[in-house]
Structure prediction request, 178 residues.
Amino acid sequence: MKTYVCMLGLVATLAATQVTAARAATMPDTPGQCTGAYAISMEVPDDAVFERQLTEVRDMTRKFHDFNWALVQGYTEYKGYEKDRGFRYVSASQENEKFSLERPAALIYVPVPGRGLHFAAVEYAVPAEDGRARPPEAFAGRADEWTLDEATDEWRLPVWVGINNPQGLFAHSNPCLP
Prediction:
């Protein structure tokens, strides 16, 4: 296993005090659990394929750090804010019949006081086939944790590439969110 830490900036011109204020306003005061609101620290398989896939997701999502870009691309709010999940923005044009790294079904954003919405994660969704007992093949290795949403009959997989999630890169919820 390797441990990766990737720093993601909101905006290059933010002053350190503004970042600290935003971090404090959006993350619980639990030492060691949610430190570094804009850092990703995770255990991942020592696998070149997984590393390439994760790099593709990070590269693809850079443009969505600008919330307005998501709106221009046709993403719309779904259900409002969900505790430990954030705001999900979905795009009908991104609905998938099978898993594709380049086509997440949803983007997840969290509020940052005085700054608007901050990109937190992507979420993949693919239809569950009748009687399907296993989630789709996606990321290399076995780290991804698909959840079957019985209400929509879809397999769902969030990937927390925008903020830290102490429960894991692929966890269904994130305790660091308000």
